[in-house]
C-alpha cells in the first residue's frame, strides 16, 4: 500500500524525449546518439564544456535545426519532422543563449507579443492597438513576478544584459509552456539576480518540465533534479548531481574549466 | 539590401508636450493642401503624384514595416491597371467595380508570387520577385486582352456609383484624393494593429517570434498580399486617371522606381514614401520638358540622397532633434 503511494507520487512522466539524436554539419558531427528523457515537474540540467553541443541539442529539440539522425517525442507526439513554430504551439518553448528580446519594444510590449497568440489577438489587422489593452493585466503580473515592474515602459534595448535575460524568461513564461528549455538563463547576471532567477525556475518547475543549460555548477547542484553531461556531442554521464560530480570522467572533462 | 538601419541613438529626447497637437495640426494642414492643391498645380500632375505616392506607401508596407525588399511590385501596380482598364472598357463595369477588380486581381497575384518567394531571404527574395514579375510582364506582352505594345487605350472613366461623372478633371481629382486618403488610413491601421505588432516583432527578432509560436511565413505573406492589393489600388486608379494601361507599368523599371521613391523619402515612416514619390514625379515632370536625360538625373539624385541621408529625407528629419521633439518615429 505504502509502496503504491510512493510510486504514484514519484511516477516519472516523460514529456519530452530524444532517441539516438544526431546532427552533422557538413561532415562534422556536432551531436551524436543523444538519448534524453525530460520529466514533468523536474529540472533537468544539460551541462558540458564549451562547444560540447548543448545549444545544438536545444536547436534540434525545438526543431530550429533538423536532426540528421534520431527521433524526438513531445507529449506522446512524434515531432521529428514538425516545424519550430508548431513545436512552440504544442507547448515546448525555448529561450536563447544570446538574449533574444524585441529591442525596440517596451518591456510590457515584449511580454504582450507572447500573450497575443494564445489570446487570439495576433491576426487582426483591422483592430486598433488599444484592443491589446486587455492583455495588460496579465503582462504586468508576469513583469511584477520577475521584478521588472520599474522597467515596464523601458525599451528592451536599454535594459542591462541580466535584465534582458529576465525579460526573456518572463516572455517565455507568458506562453505557459509545458516544457521550458532555457539556454544559460543566468549567464551575465549578478549573484543577486542569479538567486532570484533560480527561485523563479524552481517555482515554475512545480507544474512543468524544465531543461536548462547552465555553466554555474552551484546553481545546478542547488536546483536541478537530474543532470546530463555532454562532451563532444555525446553523453558522458547522467544522474543526479552527486552521482555525476563523483564520476571521474566528468571530473577530467571539467578539469581546468568551471569549479 | 537590408531594410534595417542603425538604431536611433538611445539618448532619450522626450517629445515636446504639445507634440501630439502639433502633429495633428500637420495632418490637418496636409489634408487642406490636398483639397486646395488643384487651384495651384495641374490636377493631372497631382493625380499622378497621388497614384505613385499610394504605390510607394504600399511598397513601404512591405519594405519598411515587414523588412522584405520586393523587386516585382510593378506586376501588382501594372497588373491592376490592366484589370481595371479591361473591366471598365470591355465589360462596361462602373469605375468603383473596375478598381475593386484591380485590387482583388493584384491581391491574387500577390498571393501567388508571395507564396513562392516568402521563404527566401534578402537578395534571393528580391530576385525571385523580380523573376516572377518579369514572367508576368511577358504574359502581358503576349496576352490578347492587354493589346501588347499598344496597351488598353481610351479607357472611359465612367460614373462613380452611377452618380458622379468622373470625366471632368476636378471630379476625378477629388475621387483620387479620397481613395488616396483611404489607402493611407488602411496602411496606418494595418501597421498599428495586433497584426502590425507581430510584424514588428518578426522584424525585430525573427527567431524569437518563431520560438513564441508565430508562423513567420504566414505573417509575411499576409503583409505581402496587403501590399500587393494596395499597389493594385494605386494602379487601378492610374488607369482611370490617364485612361490607358500599358506595359510601362508592369516593367521592371517601374519596380525600380517605386524602390527609389520609397528609399528617397525614408522607409518605415508613413510620410517618407509620399515625399519620395513627390520628389521623383516632380523631377520626371520637370526633366521631361528639358534636354537632360531623366534616368541619369534621377539616378544621381538617388545616389546623393542615399549617401547623405541614409534614412531618406523624411527618415532623417524624424531622427533629427526637431523630429524627435515632435514625437515622430521611424519604424526601421
Ligand atoms: N550551424 C552550425 N554549423 C556548423 N557548425 C556548428 C553550427 N552550430 C554549431 N556548430 C558547431 O557545433 C559544436 C557545438 O556547438 P554548440 O553551440 O552546440 O556548443 P555549446 O555546448 O552550446 O557551447 P557553449 O557552451 O559555448 O554554448 C561547435 O563545435 C560548433 O562550432
Ligand atoms: Mg551554447
TrEMBL record, chain A:
Keywords: ATP-binding, Nucleotide-binding, Transport. The keyword Acetylation does not apply. One of its GO terms (cellular component) is plasma membrane. The keyword Disulfide bond does not apply. GO terms for molecular function: ATP binding; ATP hydrolysis activity. Residues 16-257 form the ABC transporter domain. SUPFAM superfamilies: P-loop containing nucleoside triphosphate hydrolases. It holds the Pfam family ABC_tran. This is ABC transporter ATP-binding protein. It comes from Paracoccus amoyensis. The lineage of its organism: Bacteria, Pseudomonadati, Pseudomonadota, Alphaproteobacteria, Rhodobacterales.
Automatic annotation (TrEMBL), chain B:
CDD domains: TM_PBP1_LivM_like (cd06581). The chain crosses the membrane at residues 25-56, 62-85, 97-117, 123-141, 172-191, 221-246, 258-280, 292-309. It holds the Pfam family BPD_transp_2. The keyword Manganese does not apply. GO terms for cellular component: plasma membrane. One of its GO terms (molecular function) is branched-chain amino acid transmembrane transporter activity. It is a multi-pass membrane protein. The keyword Transmembrane helix applies. It comes from the Bacteria. Signal peptide: none annotated. It is found in: Cell membrane. Its main location: membrane. Keywords: Cell membrane, Membrane, Transmembrane, Transmembrane helix. PANTHER family: ABC TRANSPORTER ATP-BINDING PROTEIN (PTHR30482:SF17), HIGH-AFFINITY BRANCHED-CHAIN AMINO ACID TRANSPORT SYSTEM PERMEASE (PTHR30482). This is Branched-chain amino acid ABC transporter permease. It comes from Paracoccus amoyensis. The lineage of its organism: Bacteria, Pseudomonadati, Pseudomonadota, Alphaproteobacteria, Rhodobacterales.
Amino acid at each position: 500500500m505504502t509502496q503504491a503511494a510512493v510510486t504514484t507520487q514519484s511516477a516519472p512522466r516523460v514529456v519530452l524525449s530524444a532517441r539516438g539524436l544526431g546532427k552533422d554539419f557538413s561532415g562534422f558531427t556536432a551531436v551524436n546518439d543523444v538519448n534524453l528523457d525530460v520529466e514533468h515537474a523536474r529540472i533537468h540540467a544539460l551541462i558540458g564544456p564549451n562547444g560540447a553541443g548543448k545549444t545544438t541539442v536545444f536547436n534540434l529539440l525545438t526543431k530550429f535545426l533538423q536532426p540528421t539522425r534520431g527521433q524526438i517525442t513531445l507529449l506522446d507526439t512524434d515531432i521529428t519532422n514538425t516545424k519550430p513554430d508548431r513545436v512552440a504551439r504544442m507547448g515546448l518553448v525555448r529561450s536563447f543563449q544570446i538574449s533574444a528580446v524585441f529591442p525596440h519594444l517596451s518591456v510590457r510590449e515584449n511580454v504582450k507579443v507572447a500573450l497575443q497568440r494564445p489570446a487570439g489577438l495576433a491576426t487582426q489587422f483591422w483592430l486598433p492597438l488599444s484592443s491589446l489593452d486587455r492583455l495588460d493585466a496579465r503582462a504586468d503580473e508576469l513583469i511584477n513576478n520577475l521584478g521588472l515592474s520599474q522597467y515596464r515602459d523601458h525599451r528592451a534595448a536599454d535594459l542591462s544584459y541580466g535584465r534582458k535575460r529576465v525579460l526573456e524568461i518572463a516572455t517565455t513564461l507568458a506562453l505557459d509552456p509545458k516544457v521550458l528549455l532555457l539556454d544559460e538563463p543566468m549567464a551575465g547576471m549578478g549573484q543577486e539576480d542569479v538567486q532570484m532567477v533560480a527561485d523563479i525556475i524552481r517555482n515554475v518547475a512545480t507544474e512543468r518540465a524544465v531543461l536548462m543549460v547552465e555553466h554555474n555548477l552551484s546553481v545546478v547542484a542547488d536546483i536541478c533534479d537530474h543532470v546530463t553531461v555532454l562532451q563532444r556531442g555525446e553523453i558522458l554521464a547522467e544522474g543526479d548531481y552527486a552521482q555525476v560530480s563523483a564520476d571521474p570522467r566528468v571530473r577530467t572533462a571539467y578539469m581546468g574549466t568551471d569549479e | 539590401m537590408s531594410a534595417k538601419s542603425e538604431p536611433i541613438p538611445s539618448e532619450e529626447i522626450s517629445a515636446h508636450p504639445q507634440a501630439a497637437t502639433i502633429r495633428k495640426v500637420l495632418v490637418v494642414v496636409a489634408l487642406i493642401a490636398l483639397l486646395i492643391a488643384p487651384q495651384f498645380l495641374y490636377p493631372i500632375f497631382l493625380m499622378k503624384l497621388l497614384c505613385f505616392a499610394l504605390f510607394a506607401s504600399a511598397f513601404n508596407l512591405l519594405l519598411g514595416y515587414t523588412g522584405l525588399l520586393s523587386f516585382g511590385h510593378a506586376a501588382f501596380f501594372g497588373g491592376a491597371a490592366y484589370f481595371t482598364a479591361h473591366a471598365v472598357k470591355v465589360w462596361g463595369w462602373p469605375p468603383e467595380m473596375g478598381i475593386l477588380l484591380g485590387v482583388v486581381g493584384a491581391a491574387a497575384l500577390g498571393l501567388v508570387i508571395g507564396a513562392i518567394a516568402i521563404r527566401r531571404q534578402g537578395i534571393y527574395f528580391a530576385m525571385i520577385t523580380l523573376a516572377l514579375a518579369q514572367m508576368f510582364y511577358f504574359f502581358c506582352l503576349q496576352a490578347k486582352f492587354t493589346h501588347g505594345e499598344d496597351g488598353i487605350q481610351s479607357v472611359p472613366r465612367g460614373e462613380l456609383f452611377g452618380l458622379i461623372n468622373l470625366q471632368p478633371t476636378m471630379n476625378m481629382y477629388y475621387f483620387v484624393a479620397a481613395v488616396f486618403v483611404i489607402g493611407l488610413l488602411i496602411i496606418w491601421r494595418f501597421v498599428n494593429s495586433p497584426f502590425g505588432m507581430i510584424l514588428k516583432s518578426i522584424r525585430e527578432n525573427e527567431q524569437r517570434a518563431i520560438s513564441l509560436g508565430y508562423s513567420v511565413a504566414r505573417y509575411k505573406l499576409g503583409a505581402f498580399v496587403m501590399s500587393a492589393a494596395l499597389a493594385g489600388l494605386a494602379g487601378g486608379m492610374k488607369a482611370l486617371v490617364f485612361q490607358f494601361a500599358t506595359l510601362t507599368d508592369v516593367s521592371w523599371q517601374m519596380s525600380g522606381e517605386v524602390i527609389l521613391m520609397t528609399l528617397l523619402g525614408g522607409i518605415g515612416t508613413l510620410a517618407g514614401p509620399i515625399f519620395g514619390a513627390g520628389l521623383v514625379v516632380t523631377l520626371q515632370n520637370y526633366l521631361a520638358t528639358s534636354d537632360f536625360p531623366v534616368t541619369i538625373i534621377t539616378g544621381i539624385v538617388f545616389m546623393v540622397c542615399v549617401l547623405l541621408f541614409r534614412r531618406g529625407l523624411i527618415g532623417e528629419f524624424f531622427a533629427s532633434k526637431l523630429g524627435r521633439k515632435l514625437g515622430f518615429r521611424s519604424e526601421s
